[in-house]
């Protein structure tokens, strides 16, 4: 999701950043590098956005530092925002961020505690709009953006560029008048797949090892296991002598309902979950299934991971480690499979590895149908809000508004789903033809984020921890920037696609017959786009009794899912599976399923508004 909620979103989704835990990075000083375009022509560095003395003319006083508490249910970093993003917003707005991440401090328990305190902070980020967001509204914990004409005065770009998103906020959660937040991944492009060069999911394998074992055709998801086993036997240890695995799982994305990493194959078959329900819904058809049913790819994934563990392909640290631990293992070359291109490739595909032909790349399976959310003019289900007790809401609104502008989007594009563009003049710039391009320094930063040190004048620290740690994708990165007529995502810039490919890229392109993974799926008609509509009514929500019942059921599913993956044999797996079903049925799973079907029908109705 970073990405967790974005995927479930999908991830939403994903989606989405490479996400990080606490840390400040190394502050080794460097001089700013020269910027060169693809032609090798040095480009005169323009005034960096961060060096502007004032933001747009709002008449606000920025002379005093404004320290904001950001409570994010999607962040995987806690503490003060440091590095290059901190420098940009400090110079531009005189704002400092202190991030509280419920993912790191108790999950739903932390969210409940914050709500009970009566103060959620200055900026609040919700991974979805299903439970916590409406509860916060009911508890009077969020500020109405229409109060004192806040949005129209200090959020003019949001109001002008994304009116459908504010309309949805007003009707769905504001009683037709109030606006308590705006969705993530907002877009103005109405059609097509919204992803960039890569899709949100893979699957990606260590391409070099896959080629060495003969690049066998993958006819089903289960076919990955024997192939991965051969790859593991070919490289049983990394360069440091540590054992390699196909799968390395982590639990800090699980929330309170399921083993999150057991849903990704459903996304690769054109389905996604409706958060906090019991159904997975097809992107482009009125079809859904119970995710605890035998045909569900949640249940099939548990079996797959169990089988993989029996083969020695699952990292035993999976039971106790966190996301950051897994990131480090990808970086160290200890893992062979990645669900997401922003995870495996982003951490292992350094320029050195790619030059040697080593790295992660897409290895699709027969029948794969990639789920895509498409361009959503209403915004996705993640929400950014302002706390009811926030001091100086005008400056907060001005800051949030900026994140939805071309200038703000160019800096953070990719955050939550991929590597962000970063500071203009350092990692990217504009060439003599007015086209954006990635600098040599930028390519190094994107490929080796944690080991790339940022010059002091741009904020110091490393690139990875310096990115926007709120873990919220404001606009769709694939959307066209009106100032450059190129997408925000640097992976889709013309200069990027025309850049000399690495040995790894050349080999992959030659064998796949396309330039990018997205092109592969589009060319072969293997994308299922989910229309992102709106019913024009308030969303259906669980009552308190069913919500509590659902949480109890979710806890049981999550606990048993992990036990099943690491069961000693098939007999124990089957026994645990039966126990899980018996327990959730006893807790009222039928009632949850009945509500879930209604949510699926609501979704189908919403889709009709954009068809």
UniProtKB/TrEMBL annotation:
Keyword Disulfide bond: no
Leader sequence residues: 1-20
SUPFAM superfamilies documented for this protein: Periplasmic binding protein-like II
PROSITE patterns noted in UniProt: PROKAR_LIPOPROTEIN (PS51257)
Keywords in alphabetical order: Signal
Annotated protein name in UniProt: ABC transporter substrate-binding protein
Residue ranges with Polar residues bias: 28-56
Chain spans, region Disordered: 28-61
């Amino acid at each position: 999701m970073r990405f967790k909620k974005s995927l479930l979103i999908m991830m939403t989704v994903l989606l989405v950043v490479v996400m990080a835990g606490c840390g400040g990075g190394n502050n080794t000083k460097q001089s700013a590098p020269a910027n060169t375009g693809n032609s090798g022509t040095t480009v005169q560095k323009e005034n960096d956005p961060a060096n502007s003395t004032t933001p747009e003319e709002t008449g606000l006083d920025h002379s005093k530092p404004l320290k904001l508490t950001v409570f994010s249910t999607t962040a995987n970093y806690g503490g003060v925002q440091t590095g290059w993003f901190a420098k940009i917003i400090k110079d531009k707005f005189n704002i400092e961020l202190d991030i509280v991440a419920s993912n790191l401090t108790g999950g739903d328990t932390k969210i409940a505690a914050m709500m009970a305190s009566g103060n959620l902070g200055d900026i609040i980020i919700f991974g979805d709009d299903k439970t916590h967001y409406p509860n916060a509204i009911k508890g009077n914990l969020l500020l109405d953006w229409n109060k004192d004409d806040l949005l129209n005065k200090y959020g003019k770009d949001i109001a002008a560029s994304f009116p459908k998103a504010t309309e949805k906020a007003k009707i769905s959660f504001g009683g037709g008048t109030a606006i308590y937040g705006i969705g993530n991944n907002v877009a103005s492009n109405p059609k097509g797949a919204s992803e960039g060069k890569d899709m949100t999911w893979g699957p990606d394998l260590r391409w070099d090892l896959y080629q060495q074992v003969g690049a066998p055709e993958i006819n089903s998801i289960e076919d990955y296991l024997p192939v991965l086993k051969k790859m593991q036997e070919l490289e049983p240890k990394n360069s440091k002598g540590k054992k390699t695995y196909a799968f390395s799982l982590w639990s800090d994305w699980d929330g309170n309902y399921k083993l999150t990493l057991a849903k990704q194959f459903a996304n690769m078959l054109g389905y996604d979950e409706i958060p906090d329900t019991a159904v997975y819904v097809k992107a482009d058809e009125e079809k859904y299934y119970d995710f605890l049913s035998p045909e569900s790819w949640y249940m099939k994934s548990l079996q797959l991971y169990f089988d993989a563990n029996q083969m020695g392909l699952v990292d035993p640290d999976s039971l106790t480690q966190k996301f950051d631990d897994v990131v480090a293992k990808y970086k160290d070359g200890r893992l062979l499979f990645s669900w997401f291109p922003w995870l495996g490739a982003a951490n292992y595909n350094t320029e050195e590895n790619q030059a040697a032909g080593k790295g992660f790349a897409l290895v699709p399976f027969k029948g794969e149908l990639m789920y895509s959310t498409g361009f959503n003019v209403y915004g996705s289900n993640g929400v950014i809000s302002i706390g009811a007790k926030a001091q100086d809401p005008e400056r907060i609104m001005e800051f949030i508004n900026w994140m939805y502008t071309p200038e703000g989007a160019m800096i953070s594009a990719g955050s939550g789903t991929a590597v962000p563009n970063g500071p203009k003049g350092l990692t990217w710039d504009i060439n003599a033809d007015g086209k954006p391009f990635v600098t040599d320094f930028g390519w190094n930063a994107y490929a080796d984020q944690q080991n790339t040190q940022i010059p002091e004048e741009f904020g110091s620290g490393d690139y990875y921890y310096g990115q926007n740690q709120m873990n919220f994708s404001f606009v769709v990165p694939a959307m066209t920037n009106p100032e450059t007529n190129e997408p925000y995502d640097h992976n889709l810039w013309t200069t990027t696609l025309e850049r000399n490919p690495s040995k790894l890229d050349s080999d992959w392109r030659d064998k796949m017959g396309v330039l990018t993974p997205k092109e592969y799926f589009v060319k072969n008609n293997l994308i299922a786009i989910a229309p992102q509509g709106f019913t024009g009514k308030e969303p259906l929500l669980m009552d308190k009794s069913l919500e509590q019942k659902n949480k109890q059921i979710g806890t049981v599913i999550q606990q048993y899912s992990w036990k099943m993956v690491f069961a000693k044999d098939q007999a124990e797996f089957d026994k645990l599976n039966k126990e899980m079903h018996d327990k959730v049925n006893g807790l009222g799973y039928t009632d949850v399923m009945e509500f879930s079907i209604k949510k699926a029908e609501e979704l189908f109705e919403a889709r009709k508004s954009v068809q």
